Amino acid sequence: MVPDSKPILEVQNLTRRFGGLLAINDFSFKVLPGTIHGLIGPNGAGKTTTFNVISGFYAPTSGQVLYEGENVSGRKTSALAELGLIRTFQGTTLFQEFSVLDNVRIGCHRSAKAGFLSRILGTDRDVESAATAKALEILEFFGLQDLTGEPTVNLPHGHQRALGMAVALAADPKLILLDEPFTGMNPEETGRMMELVRLVRDRGVTVMLVEHDMQAVMGLCETITVMNFGTLLTEGTPEQVRKDPVVIEAYLGSASHAA
Q1: Are 152 and 103 in contact (CB under 8 A)?
Q2: Element (H, E) at 198
Q3: How far apart are CA 135 and CA 2, in angstroms?
Q4: Domains located in the chain, CATH noted
Q5: What span, in angstroms and rounded, lies between the C-alpha atoms of 185 and 178?
Q6: How far apart are CA 94 and CA 138, in angstroms?
Q7: Is the model's pTM score more than 0.85?
Q8: Which of 5, 10, 174, 208 is most exposed, with minimal Cβ within 10 Å?
Q9: Which long-range contacts (CB under 8 A, 24 or more apart) does 197-201 make?
Q10: Taking a C-beta distance cutoff of 8 angstroms, is the pair 11, 28 a contact?
Q11: pLDDT tens across 100-148, in order?
């Protein structure tokens, strides 16, 4: 990352209402390319709604979302994926009865010229072979190469979350939005997932994540944006956020919780 880089993502004065509920209120922040950027805040702060607006599930009530300098506010998720903005979900969205390999092959469909069905049915052999080769390379990258033929439903939780990341990486993201990637993980799984997130960033992908695991957030992110009641509370490095008395009172509870 170059310090004066133009942001890959910029949220400007974003507001989102649901009837009388103001979920996001005049919220602004920037994400620089090549970084791991955290978005944190108490339950109900507006983090997931912000992700939903950025990734095209909701249109903003007002304000705008700029991706690589272009206003993409309200564009469909599929259109944003074509531009390289990929979002994962807190709950796994894998095809549980498909093999590990087939899940990642499906993730390759955005960059393949053949249609989804033609590749799955094997009617376009060249594209099918390219997708398989790409999927195998990604599975090796994530350390899942020995599980290619395993039905996804048989994988333990940590492996399923890693597979979800592999599927997202197969779509050639420039910016990946991770929604609580460490939920339900034990300390060993969390450590492994943190390393995978770093490897994805080192591969040239900018990462933004919503997460409640403060140890993971503080250990991964260069910049942390803190929300509360739909607005910006503060922003800074992990050290700055950890010591901010407003954050400690509003979210972390005590400085020890941020360690």
Answers
A1: yes
A2: helix 187-202
A3: 31
A4: 1-84+174-193+206-259 (3.40.50.300), 93-172 (no CATH)
A5: 15
A6: 16
A7: yes
A8: 5
A9: 197/36, 197/165, 198/36, 199/141, 200/165, 200/169, 200/176, 201/34, 201/35, 201/36
A10: yes
A11: 999 999 888 755 545 555 655 555 677 788 889 999 999 999 999 999 9
Alpha-carbon distance of 227 to 42, in angstroms, equals 8
> For tokens 């994540």, what's the residue?
209
Cα gap 171→135, rounded to integer Å: 10
Specify the residue for token string 């599929």: 78
Residue with tokens 């103001």: 22
Query: pLDDT digit string (tens) for 62-102?
Result: 999 999 999 999 999 999 999 999 998 766 678 999 999 99
Contacts of 195 (CB under 8 A, 6+ apart): none
Strands 70-71 and 85-87: unpaired
User: What's the Rg (C-alpha) of the chain?
Assistant: 19
pLDDT in tens, 31-65: 999 999 999 998 889 999 999 999 999 999 999 99
Place of tokens 């310090």: 3
Q: Which tokens is 64 given?
A: 């705008």
Strands (E) in 106-216, as ranges, are 175-179, 206-210
Residue with the two structure tokens 């490095």: 237
